[in-house]
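Sample entry was shown:

___
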Amino acid sequence: GKAYWLTGFMVEKIWERFSVFVNFENFTDTRQTKFGSIYTGSITSPVFRDIYAPLDGFVVNAGIKFRLLK
């Protein structure tokens, strides 16, 4: 497979009982499907290539964490 870089960034604000975070992954939107097809053949009889790079591209997620016990 081709060489590639993955970069990400996460930030979190913490309070006493909870925190809020935002996470960004794969800023360069690297996907193996940009390098070529991940399968050949027909839909009924596919031949898959090895997966070596992300398939989902740029990802953003966020959340809230609660502290239940002190």
